[in-house]
Amino acid sequence: MKTQIETDDYTIYLTGIESGPDSLTRHEREQMAAADLIHTAFGPEAKKSHYPDGAPFITGYTDIPVSLSHSTSSCLLAVGKNSQVIGADIESPRPQLRRVCSRFLNSAEQLRLTEEDNTASAAMNFLLKCWTAKEAVYKAARTPGLGLTEISTSQDFTRANARGQWYDLAFHDAPATEEIICVAIAAGQFIS
């Protein structure tokens, strides 16, 4: 089932990743889901390509920013409505986030995690927001060597900073799943 989320700044196209024939790998099913969303957004002849840094673009539409993401069960395509750089991520709640949080939380965020409401659901919500925000910013930043711990999220999760560049963050719940979506849009240089 395909769904669409509209905002003033972008459109999110979302579909499930079908289990498909056993002959297809997970990667092939993800690619099929992405191609389906690209055709929905840009027409049946549209094709995905990549810049040298790996960021995707749609052939013939290089002036329209896009971002792709996959979770265990969903694929999303975020399409910007203006020329601002965009990044998007989708993620399901999963225990692995707690085990690897030191790889993506900086020291301030690790402290915030310990100060948060210590219920399992509050901690998972915090980790999901941090993870999706950092993945979305990473995609938007297109900065070689940028580490996830270098990306800092604001207390209220409305902004993030990566190497002096601000990004506005917006979160969405994926319809009919427990997944969370984050979209990051470049907002300007950080001035201290």
Description:
The chain has 192 residues and is an alpha+beta fold. The termini are far apart. The model has no long low-confidence stretch (mean pLDDT 92). It has 4 helices and 11 strands; from the N terminus they run E-E-H-E-E-E-E-E-H-H-H-E-E-E-E. It has a 5-stranded antiparallel beta sheet with strand order 7-11-10-9-8.
Summarize the structure.
This protein has 4 helices and 11 strands, in the order ββαβββββαααββββ. It is of the alpha+beta class and 192 residues long. 31% of the residues are buried.
Topology at a glance:
Elements: E1 3-6, E2 10-16, H1 26-42, E3 48-50, E4 56-58, E5 66-70, E6 74-80, E7 86-91, H2 96-99, H3 107-115, H4 120-141, E8 151-153, E9 159-162, E10 165-173, E11 180-189
Question: Which strand order do you get reading across the main beta sheet?
Answer: 7-11-10-9-8
User: Which word captures the global form?
Assistant: globular
Q: Which percent range fits the helix content?
A: 25-40%
Question: What's the SSE pattern?
Answer: EEHEEEEEHHHEEEE
Contiguous uncertain segments of 5+ residues? none
Total number of helical segments? 4
Percent strand equals 25-35%
Radius of gyration: 17 Å
Properties at a glance:
192 residues; alpha+beta; 5-stranded antiparallel sheet; 4-stranded antiparallel sheet; 27% helix; 32% strand; globular
